[in-house]
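Please produce the structure of this protein holding zinc ion.
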Amino acid sequence: MVKKIAKTISKIGAPLYGVKGLIRKTGQHIVLPFYHSVANNTPIHIQHLYQSRSITSFKADLDFLLTHYKSISLHQLIELNDSDEEIDENYFHITFDDGLREFYDVVAPILKEKQVHATVFLNSDFIDNKQLFYRFKESILFDKLKDKSILSIPYSKEQHLDELALLNQIDFDAYLKEASPYLTSEQIKELIGDGITFGAHSKNHPLYKEISLEEQLVQTNESVKMITSQFGLDYSAFSFPFTDDGVSLAFFDKIYNQTDITFGGAGLKKDAAKNHLQRIAMETNCSGKAIIKNEYVYYLIKEMIGKNKIARL
Ligand SMILES: [Zn+2]
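Below is the modeled complex.
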């Protein structure tokens, strides 16, 4: 309830302030917007989960960001995060979760044209279209069966989805071949050559608060290890699948030596975990400008009630 009121106040308050003033007031000089897919037509495996950012909106987001912030690389972000020096410029780094083909087809050429850095987070089980994310299976099944309960089947019941598909003559392997939702190793290598950085996003995208600490560590360490070794990366980054909500400090302590930096998606917020940064979700109906400004005002409200930092047990 408090959250809802604070979000509404943010929406009303945000247009009253300029971006510069909001950055100064909050002291938040770095923004980390994140996306999944950018496309004018949302593919079936995504359509019933969320809407892709349209190409026009994405370009407008970048123009807004480039007006107020400087694009920095993942390496610069890691350095800034490690440094104790005060930040006097404003920076942004954009990231993409789930390693989707639209990054190669649509996003990369736009980033090249506008000279914007980006990092893509990959699920190690899905690269090269080897397997399908269980939520994508739900979207494909719902598209045909129109049964809403399909969309809330949890990760632990993924087998149900495979059984449902079999019963209804839906062939996920054929879908993977035909639609190729994911980036291939070849495309990833080419993108690395163009300066795009990559990180891991778990093996097969479970909701971390629903799995044990041991499973969280396996999902994280194995995916990070696989991606850094397969693509010869001298850095390691990780973004949480879905959310880092409920992930303990014990987890962060255990991965501290395995990753240079990790990312959540809780908006503009500080975090009790070291080397862990929160990003701003951009897949809403609002303009990039409105999303970022709302986050600043929301941050100021949270700061007043001491809720602008995620506390972890
Ligand atoms: Zn994801």
